[in-house]
Specification:
The chain is an alpha+beta fold. It has two domains: 2-138, no CATH class; 145-251, no CATH class. It is 25% helix and 35% strand. It contains six helices and 16 strands. The chain has helices at residues 2-7, 55-60, 80-89, 121-138, 184-194, 239-251; strands at 8-16, 26-33, 39-47, 69-75, 92-93, 101-108, 111-112, 117-118, 145-153, 156-165, 170-175, 178-182, 198-199, 213-217, 223-225, 230-231. It has a six-stranded antiparallel sheet. It has a six-stranded antiparallel sheet with strand order 12-11-10-9-14-15. A two-stranded antiparallel ribbon has the order 5-8. Helix 5 packs antiparallel against helix 6. The protein starts with a helix and ends with a helix.
Length: 253
């Protein structure tokens, strides 16, 4: 068992979104190779079944008519360890993934060891999304994710921001003159919370609020007030409260 872990020199991730309708439906193949110490990657991403949609329908969903993407190059080697750790803890299943999912082909000393289906589908899909985002940042196709947060209390305004660099798995927290690196997993869990509630854009403003409350801007220039313009989808899960708690912990509050 241990020898197979150390012999792993790369993996190929293949994903099919399955029953998801266009323009969201897509497939990708992401090959990772760290056999020589660096991390070489090859990505082929293709959106499917779009021929049944008009150009306007595609644009209305926030896409373009040319979202397919291919890349051959390298990524920061900081990604090797998390991929290996996820692979080593993964249990495999014989369950079919006809409705969509991810498969993994391990490479040992460059040799194809046969296709496997991970039981922890969501973890692998998130890892693949993070790796693709890292590629987009590396080639400057997209900027790092930056979220601004403001807390107004007793006439005091406290501003801070989190910048998530997928290219090198680094998260920078800034508040006033303070600038520090945040633990990756903590930041990713907080980002997950940030994108969980409903954002009511009809209530959004282009400037941060000055009245008592907590405000957030997720990189698109629009400020939302937590609890008013940002509302929990499920009353049994307080994502809004978790966002406030996460940022206040970073702020030392």
């Amino acid at each position: 068992m241990n020898s197979s872990k150390t012999a792993l020199t790369g993996i190929v991730l293949e994903y099919d979104s399955g029953i998801v309708p266009p323009p969201y439906s897509h497939v990708f193949r992401l090959a990772l190779d760290w056999g020589k110490g660096d991390l070489d990657v090859k990505l082929d991403l293709h959106y499917t079944e779009r021929e049944e949609l008009s150009e306007q329908e595609i644009l209305d969903e926030g896409f373009t008519t040319n979202d397919d993407y291919s890349y051959t190059g390298s990524l920061n080697a900081v990604w090797i360890k998390p991929v290996q750790e996820l692979f080593n803890k993964t249990k495999w299943t014989n369950k079919d993934i006809e409705e969509g999912g991810i498969t993994i082909t391990p490479l040992e000393k460059g040799k194809d060891e046969g296709l496997k289906i991970p039981s922890n589908q969501e973890e692998w899909q998130l890892m693949a999304q993070d790796l693709i985002q890292a590629i987009y940042e590396t080639v400057k196709k997209e900027l790092p994710l930056q979220v601004h947060y403001r807390k107004v209390e007793h006439e005091q305004v406290i501003d801070c921001s989190l910048t998530v660099h997928f290219s090198n798995r680094e998260v920078i927290f800034e508040m006033g003159q303070e600038k520090r690196t945040i633990h990756w997993e903590y930041a990713i869990q907080l980002m997950k919370m940030v994108f969980t509630p409903d954002y009511h854009y009809e209530m959004a403003k282009e400037e941060a609020g000055k009245k008592r409350g907590s405000y957030i801007e997720c990189g698109d220039g629009y400020w939302h007030e937590l609890g008013k313009g940002v509302i929990n989808i499920d009353s049994s899960f307080d994502a809004v409260g978790k966002i406030k708690a996460g940022f206040e912990e970073l702020m030392g509050g």
